[in-house]
Amino acid sequence: MNQNSAITTIKGIGEKTKDSFAKMGVYTVGDILLHFPRTYVKYPKAEAIDEISFLSEEPHAIVAKVMQTPLVKNTRRMQVTLLTIGSSGHKIQLVWYRMPYIRNTLTYGHYFVFYGKVTVREGKYTMEHPVIYTPENYQKIQECFLPVYSISEGVTNNLMIKTIRQILDEEILLTEYLPKEVRQTHELCEYNYAIKQIHFPDSMDTLIQARRRLVFDEFFMFIMGMQYQKECKQKHKNDFVLQGEDFVWKLVRKLPYHLTNAQKKTLQDLTENMQSSYAMQRLIQGDVGSGKTIIAFLSMAWCASNGFQSAIMAPTEVLARQHFSTFQKLCEDFELDFPVVLLTGSMTTKEKQIAYEKLASRPNALIVGTHALIQEKAVFLNLALVITDEQHRFGVKQRDILAGKGQHPHILVMSATPIPRTLAIIIYGDMDISVIDEVPARRLPIKNCVVNTAYRPKAYEFITEQVRQGHQAYIICPLVEESENSEGENVTDYARQLQTQLPPDIRIGVLHGRMNNDKKNIVMEQFARGEIEVLVSTTVVEVGVNVPNATVMMIENANRFGLAQLHQLRGRVGRGDAQSYCIMVNTSDTKTAKKRLEILNQSNDGFYIASEDLKLRGPGDFFGIRQSGELAFQLADIYQDAEILQCASEAVKNILDNDPDLKAEENKILQNRMKQFIEKQIGKMNL
């Protein structure tokens, strides 16, 4: 048996258990060794029942003398074993289900330690299924750390412990891949020692040593994988060198408002890139409402002035149509005779055919679309610039397919998900980064409040006042319709009930993801034109919708959303000159929910909120693993382990500076390990 052996080579693991392990991503002996504990249990001191306070929710260890024979009761469903311990003033009932043999192990007159959680049932203190130890055996384990694993159905924590102990006892060694110099420089323990200590630490000190080494490994391999790929990517010669930079700045001077300094700096970055020797690859990271769209238009218009095509891909049809209308109007306002072309999936066959013909015949077209842009039938003439809007909604492959529609075009990625620059550099290692961290001066800060459900009548009164002043409002619900499996407001019932709460002349609309694209577009266009005054919607409006007249965002069950998503939703208001408001309805009594929403209540700064969100939820949750890939580390935390992150980054830089291709003899093992990592991890990412 070795690290590549199937999990079934381990004694006691058959086909059925193998399938349960597969659900955890465990297929080999090596996989289970790298399935680290999520936490540890340190057994409490064994105490007499009179010394214990049962107010604590933590497990207790009660040492008691068995003064009666356990009672086995036969019910219609099962056998129940009962034993009462303690004095008359402080009793606790121990309960075991379907375990009648317990009666024979609890010898009358002997002391035992009972370990478990205490609850109150029918007015009695009760401990269900306590683990039984002799005082001597309990003393032996009291100083140990018991690992607790994330497991799937069919795998118990005890099975994990037993299996990993069995593997470690056989001295199956994992290959040490870090160069000795790196381990010495950063004071890292040996790999196999770290693996043993992370599962069964001898002490807190050895656990800290093991965790430091394995956290370093996670950061090191992630950064190495990203940087190695960047080094391997060939820089493409700039085949679309744009001329006449003055054209861009003349348009800027014609705008009815002033760009922020951050927008100007970003625009300067773009113009320099697109006139350089190599094709641009740049990320624009900007908070909601920071003005990324005008930067996109200016760069696309510059391409058109040079006789080149450009394309922007949006994640939703609503946003694509909005960009299309915005770009058309800007071209009219600036008196630019550039064709603006729209291509989306819901267009009729005839409409698509007309769009395809324009793509193939208009050399200076500004092309706007959704995923339809990357379909085979979409053939471009001379595509010089591709822009991906709301990058976190697309996969790497989708972005690459769009870029592949041209001959090494300039690439611009825009993201409204503000993340710390250190993390952005790691994730988008193959790109230069521009940050727009200012909002236009003409916009007033959004006023926030977190309320409970009792505030709803006042909220409806306030929305009515805003509508009477000529404004509009969003109300966000987490569900489309009532669900047996999930509690929360749903759009369907909420809109119906809202009709009875607001004056009858206020026009209410409904929007959710299950509606077909034509219906969604009609509703959003009606809202944009002011024909709908209050829009009850799911989070389908989260991305990019721009209705400057909307001044109220009311979010029901706000505690169900992540801070980053709430901030995105809030960004749908405050886009005009009028004062805007965000009302977050908290339906949870937990301290965690209150703490999270208070962060949003106190700040409109997306970068601050993103940092706090990362601290509370972890980077994997922040980006949404289900939709955005496997960024979450098993052990590492970018805030708690910031110093280790820096060390890992330095180590990667030193190695690649001296050996960019990892061909040196001392780096051969590292190269193989890194390639395996890229295949297993980065290949699955959808950043």
Short recap of the structure:
By secondary structure, the protein is of the alpha/beta class.
> How far is the first residue's CA from the last residue's CA?
37 Å
Principal-axes shape call: globular
Strand content: 15-25%
**Main sheet makeup:** 7 strands, parallel
Architecture overview:
The chain has 687 residues and is of the alpha/beta class. Helices cover 39% and strands 17% of the residues. The protein is built from 25 helices and 24 strands. It has a seven-stranded parallel beta sheet, with helices on both faces. Helix 19 links the parallel strand 23 and strand 24. The longest helix has 29 residues, at 204-232. The chain starts with 14 loop residues before the first helix and ends in a 7-residue tail after the last helix.
